[in-house]
Amino acid sequence: MSERIRVYVQLRPNMEMTAAEVLDHCRVALASFKIPDEVRLVESLPLSAVQTIERAALREQARKELEQTTGY
């Protein structure tokens, strides 16, 4: 099973951007091996009590999304 890179993006208030535009920006700004395979635009990111992103919660969300789409 190969790994896929998924990025979760929370836009600033009143900002509009599509997943395709995020990928276009990544292609310009990042090395090719760092370009994500998927972009998820989200209303908010899970934060800890000290306002840092809870990566474990994002991994769990990604796992649940994968289960829903693949049936695993």
Keyword list:
72 residues; two-stranded parallel ribbon; alpha+beta; GMP Synthetase, Chain A, domain 3; single chain; globular
3D architecture notes:
There is one protein chain. The protein is α+β, with helices and mostly antiparallel strands and 72 residues long. It has one domain (6-70): GMP Synthetase, Chain A, domain 3 (2-Layer Sandwich). Helices cover 38% and strands 14% of the residues. It contains two helices and two strands; from the N terminus they run βαβα. It has helices at 19-29, 55-70; strands at residues 6-10, 38-42. A two-stranded parallel sheet has the order 1-2. Helix 1 (19-29) links the parallel strand 1 (6-10) and strand 2 (38-42). The chain is globular and about 30 Å long. It starts with 5 loop residues before the first strand and ends with a helix.
What is the CA–CA distance across the termini?
13 Å
**CATH class identity:** Alpha Beta
CA gyration radius, whole angstroms: 14 Å
Q: Please provide the count of β strands.
A: 2
The name of the CATH superfamily reads: ANL, C-terminal domain
The biggest sheet amounts to: 2 strands, parallel
Portion of residues within helices? 25-40%
